[in-house]
Each structure stands twice: as structure tokens, then as C-alpha cells.
Design goal:
Layout (H helix, E strand, L loop, with lengths): L5 H17 E7 L2 E6 L6 H14 L4 E6 L6 E6 L4 H8 L7
Antiparallel strand pairs: 1-2, 2-4, 3-4
Helix pairs in contact: 1-2
Length: about 100
């Protein structure tokens, strides 16, 4: 958690709350989760900024962003080594997992 400055941590927290609120659907993957985000709830730029911050503190995550054509929905993939799913569920406590 010391990987970010105080200002970066504050921005990260804002983006994380926005990201959690934007999740429309969660898809379980073999090695993580795919979060489908509501259109217009969070911008691609904000998701990319969150990814940049997340890599600073949790570089063990594999992170991928998919943007649908015509400025459609965004999907965020969070993956990792075996056992990472439990950590993702804990880390993203504000998201409803099935």
C-alpha cells in the first residue's frame, strides 16, 4: 500500500468506488474474473487510470480492458495465479459475486 503517494491513493479510492458501482455483471474465469461495466458509468480513461494504480500495488494481477465497438460497454479482466480468486473477492468486497 506504500506504492502510491497520498494523492494517488485518494484518486485510486475514488476510481475504485466508481468501478465497483459500474459493475453490471461478473463472469468467473478459470484464473480470475471478468467485470462487465455499465455503459456511461465509468469512462475508458478512468478504467485505464485505475489499472495503472492497481499495477503499482498489486503487480501480481493480470489486468485487461476490452472496449466494445461504437463506444459500447467496457469489460475489465482481473486474473492471476491459483488462489487469486479469493483475494479478488476480498479486495472487491463492494461487488456482488455469485
Amino acid at each position: 500500500m506504500n506504492a502510491m503517494t497520498k494523492e494517488e491513493r485518494a484518486r485510486y479510492d475514488v476510481l475504485r468506488r466508481k468501478l465497483e458501482q459500474a459493475v453490471e455483471r461478473v463472469e468467473e474465469l478459470e484464473n480470475g474474473y471478468m467485470f462487465r461495466l455499465r455503459e456511461a458509468s465509468i469512462s475508458l480513461k478512468e478504467v485505464a487510470q485505475w489499472v495503472e494504480y492497481e499495477q503499482k500495488c498489486c503487480s501480481f494481477f493480470g489486468l485487461g480492458v476490452e472496449a466494445a465497438p461504437q463506444k459500447g460497454p467496457i469489460a475489465l479482466r482481473v486474473t492471476g495465479e491459483p488462489g487469486v480468486k479469493a483475494f479478488i473477492r476480498m479486495e472487491f468486497a463492494g461487488i456482488q459475486f455469485k
